[in-house]
Amino acid sequence: QVQLVESGGGLVQPGGSLRLSCLASGIIFSRAHMGWSRQAPGKQRERVALITVGGSTNYLDSVKGRFTISRDNAKNTVYLQMNSLKPEDTAVYYCNGFRTGEYDFWGQGTQVTVSS
Predict the structure, then answer these.
(1) What is residue 86's three-state secondary structure?
(2) Are 93 and 36 in contact (CB under 8 A)?
């Protein structure tokens, strides 16, 4: 049974930081590309960051320089360090693990609210 469980969300003031974690089980983590996406109320889900099996990363333009994605294959965990948070970063954040054409599994999401 595949599970991706996100944690680390919460309420933070503008300019603050949060680190999200996503623990994966049931997949060979080291062989999965991992990503973080978000969905704000009334908006479509958008990809925020991606880290490949080889460690290459890609970011949504609006988070470049503020967010950092990383992975720890020994812990089956992918992280999203979010700094300089803005109210427009408020959303439910989801992680997914995938191999193109083979599988694409998603977590249940964690709420991030940026507000004073």
Answers:
(1) coil
(2) yes
> Helices marked H in 5-115 — which ranges?
none
Work out whether the CA dihedral 21, 96, 72, 58 comes out positive or negative. Answer: negative
- 106: exposed, middle or buried (Cβ count in 10 Å: 0-12, 13-18, 19+): middle
Q: For residue 68, give both structure tokens.
A: 């950092």
What kind and span of H or E run contains 111?
Answer: strand 110-114
Residue 33 and residue 97 in contact, taking contact as beta carbons nearer than 8 Å = yes
**What are 27-82's pLDDT values in tens digits?**
999 999 999 999 999 999 999 999 999 999 999 999 999 999 999 999 999 999 99
List the end-to-end C-alpha distance of the chain, in Å, as a whole number: 40
Contact 18, 85 (CB under 8 A): yes
